[in-house]
User: What shape does this take?
Amino acid sequence: MARYPSAFLLAALMAASISVPVLAEEAEAPKGLWERDTLTGDWGGLRSQAEDAGLKIGGTYTAEILGNPKGGNKQRAVATGNLQLDLDADFAKLADWQGLTFHLTALSLHGRGLGSNFVGSLFAVRDIEAAPNTRIWSLWLQQKFAGDAASIRLGQMPWQDEFMTSAYGATFLNGAFGWPGGFSANLVNGGGGYPFSTTGARLSVQPMDKTTLLFGVWDGDPAAGNIRGQDPSRKNTDGLNVRLKTPPVYLMEADYGDDKDAEGLPAMLKLGALIHSGRFDDPHWATNGVSLGSPNSSGIPAPRRGNWLLYGVADVMLWRDADAPKRNIGAFVRLVGGPDDRNQTPYYADTGLNWQGLIEDREDDIAGIGLAYGRMSRALAAQDRDSIRTGNSFGPVRDYEMVVEGTYRAQITPWWTVVPDAQYIVHPGGGAAWQGTSSRIPDAWVLGLRSVFKL
Assistant: This one.
């Protein structure tokens, strides 16, 4: 236990904290503490006054302990956290400029990533997993026009803010359910998903009821100059890499349907495409025309110009309690596909089922089970087979990574959520070799407990 003092100390604090509301009740805590929307309250009225004037200040702190008691490269327990601060400015209130808004999100990350450092998984085991640092994640201006039916946004923007999103998928903690594994595993330095953003512009248009069209163009590399295989945050330490000369990426999406909070049994369908104009590495062939798995290859992947990925999203509410509308069951599916000769995971899918109000008198709690699957490129598998055939390695042949996750979001107060979570990861690293042997990295269990505080 002495090897992981911070993890076990945080575990004890989080476990003990679950009993705090009961003890506070017995001690007659200050009125309203457990009922208010945020932990820090209204700051003596200053917070609501600022919002009335056009400035909205918010934040969350996420703390968790997690470990892989079985499987992966090494077994380890870690403690991680993320402080997120948000500022929104409405210039209609501040300066009588209708439709103009400003947004800023800053992150302060701490702790070591379990997936990258110990499990060896292709997909981050946590949606807050990243190198420890303090950075800007989002910084933009938006102007609405055409009677608020259209808007343009300019600045540093995460690509995942509006594209390829699933309201039900957001329940899960594995990073693949947020910024999808079909993007993070294939794009240059993981693309503009968490914890990165890049400089760009986004146009949103609502041509008719229930229909939204999104178009975006960004700098296509969040960490230009990074060496493949190294942590891209080494080349993007603060989130303010403003580059306009790197090859751009284009995203376009069409959405049709209703938000999950609409009445009845709402459904949302999304179809989109990502087109990247940068250079990508061939997973099979070297620059001298020989397989990368051969000892005679140059060791330098043949360059492929450009890349594309097509995707689809479906969010559907399957059931809603007529007497208690907050209780419902919802499902989601997301699919990603692209060319095999420049993507290491050209076929990706995730799906899941959420039950809000599984326990009848806890309507704000959400139970979920999800599955994410990434199929490794046939070209990459061909490289592995060539490597075995020529005696350059002894295997294995990479094939896929799959994650099964079960989670439960318990809403303790309006500002405090506790999330126990379990994941089983099959073929971590897509079936990669374990510590230089011919065996795969062992399948891994990941268990964790998260607390989220709305500040």
Remarks:
- The longest strand covers residues 267-286.
